[in-house]
Design goal:
114 residues; mainly beta; four-stranded antiparallel β-sheet
């Protein structure tokens, strides 16, 4: 059974950075697109961005493209979300998602204080 495990969340002050990791089990990791979502308190889960199997990245908001970077290491079966210049409104639980099979990780909390 494929599992996704996120790590790297934490508490930072505004302007800080965090790098989230998502480690996958199972085979064929390099062939799958991978997404990042987030769910802020009291809000619906929203799509942040994705990285395709060909390592093309897409972000839901153009404003994120300068602050967030998505990358992957197929040898480690990991996908990353690098977040810079964090803002309090980035506070959320961040989830890794594999569209193929609709597989979700358990989420990792990111808290940004002003």
């Amino acid at each position: 059974q494929v599992q996704l495990v996120e790590s790297g969340g934490g508490s930072v002050q505004a302007g800080g950075s965090l790098r989230l990791s998502c480690t996958a089990s199972g085979s064929g990791f390099s062939t799958y697109d991978m997404d990042w979502f987030r769910e802020a308190p009291g809000k619906q889960r929203e799509f942040v961005g994705k990285i395709t199997s060909g390592e093309r990245t897409v972000f839901a908001r153009s404003s994120w493209q300068g602050r967030f970077t998505i990358s992957r290491d197929n040898a480690k079966k990991e996908v990353y979300l690098q977040m810079n210049s964090l803002k309090p409104e980035d506070t959320a639980v961040y989830y890794c998602h594999r569209p193929a099979g609709n597989i979700w990780g358990q989420g990792t909390q990111v808290t940004v204080s002003s």
